[in-house]
Amino acid sequence: MSAEDISVNDASPADADAEEAFFRHHRPGPNDARAAEMIRVDHAGEYGAVQIYRGQRAVFDALPGKARLSNLLKEMEDGEQHHLAEFDRLIAERGVRPTLFAPVWNVAGFALGAGTALMGEKAAMACTAAVEEVIEKHYAVQAEELDTAADPLAATVRQFRDDELEHKHTAEENGAEDAPAYGLLRAVIQAGCRVAIRLSEKI
Ligand SMILES: [Fe+2]
Ligand SMILES: [Fe+2]
Fold this sequence. Notes:
It is a single chain. With 203 residues, this protein is mainly α. It has a single domain, classed as Up-down Bundle (Ferritin). It has seven helices and no strands. The protein has helices spanning 13-26, 32-60, 67-93, 102-119, 121-148, 153-173, 182-202. Helix 2 crosses helix 7 and helix 5 runs parallel beside helix 7. The model is unreliable at 1-9 (pLDDT under 50). The structure holds fe (ii) ion (FE2) (2 copies).
């Protein structure tokens, strides 16, 4: 069998996509361009996360009897602000261009937070659990890739991953999974997050 016989030229587009994704995640660590993508998308994600919690608090701050919930959301929002500040610093330090989608995530994040809060306390928690789950997995994959490149950013990403996991658990402890149509809500929100991640890495 010659090398041509096992070339990927005959592979279907789906196979080619799967292969490209595999190598993107398994090549030996990020170069500068890949590290810049990571910082850009993480910066965008933290910005979006702050906006989601702001949107949720805008609703619950205005409702009676929701002080405990508002405080809980404020604590998590403060965590996202801390994450955002770190990525703001990294954007400046490494000269990374922020995503052009920032104005979109600004509005979309707030709308997602406010919209789910208007559906009720459990729907708001379902939104938090769904978003944090995607971000936690996203950070876990990044941490591995950064480890391979011995990039000190790995430690930051791993710490933030733990924080997001804690946010997810908080949301679950507060009834996320009891939200009406939880499965559907989760699927729609997570699909949106994944699109936002893909767009913010590159653009
Ligand atoms: Fe965060
Ligand atoms: Fe979080």
